[in-house]
Amino acid sequence: MFPAERLALTLDSTLRNVDLAERLIRRFCKKVGCNERQENEIGVAVRESVANAVLHGNGSDAAKKVVLAVELRNSHLAISVQDEGKGFDPDSLPDPIDPRNLLREGGRGFFLVKASMDEVALRLASSGLEITMVKYLSKTALRRTIE
């Protein structure tokens, strides 16, 4: 299904596409030889990033797009998710592990992304917010099986 060591998708801002993005990234991970833990962590990070882009960045406006891109580089996967929103200040997010926030519904997505990935960066572009994530893959866990 993946002719190269990269995948790029442009998605409408619907929750249905959150599931699609996660399924595709998991297939990509399997294809390039990620182990189960890496696949799960990457799946969580992509799911949360795309959900945040759909719900918060694009306000669930199906006319607005979310762009997901993933590329296998030497020893890591580089993943980006871009929306058409105005961005946010990550320092303004409530601490999800603060006892006052433990019972709150939601508010853990960005925390889960940071916990699941090795590197996370945000960049506000003229067309929206882009989150870039990196997951390092051990050489023993990585099998280059893309044909």
How is the biggest beta sheet arranged? 5 strands, antiparallel
Q: What is the number of helices?
A: 3
State mean pLDDT (0 to 100 scale): 84
Derived from helix and strand composition plus strand pairing, the structural class reads alpha+beta
Radius of gyration: 15 Å
Q: Can you give a write-up of this model?
A:
This protein is 33% helix and 27% strand. Strand 2 and strand 3 form a beta hairpin. Helix 1 packs antiparallel against helix 2 and helix 2 packs antiparallel against helix 3. The protein has a single domain, classed as Heat Shock Protein 90, CATH 3.30.565.10. It is of the alpha+beta class and 147 residues long. It has 3 helices and 5 strands. 31% of the residues are buried. The chain has a 5-stranded antiparallel beta sheet with strand order 1-2-3-5-4, with helices on one face.
Task: Summarize the helices and strands and which ones pair or pack.
Layout: E1 6-12, H1 15-32, H2 36-57, E2 65-73, E3 76-82, H3 109-116, E4 119-125, E5 128-136
Antiparallel strand pairs: 1-2, 2-3, 3-5, 4-5
Helix pairs in contact: 1-2, 2-3
